[in-house]
Amino acid sequence: MTDETTWTDPREQLEAVVMMANGRLAPRSFADRAAAEAWAQPELGDQVLERNLVCSCDS
Fold this sequence. Notes:
Blueprint: E1 14-19, H1 33-39, E2 47-52
Antiparallel strand pairs: 1-2
């Protein structure tokens, strides 16, 4: 019996988040970066970031 596990590079486990103009993260999750960009309002100072899921740090 073999137990094969697919390895995923942790550097590629990212989630898109929106940092609002007030410096807080948007209180919602996004399916991908495109969805975050569609929701963000850059004219008000929002920024779309990608955060690593493993260490929860910005990339």
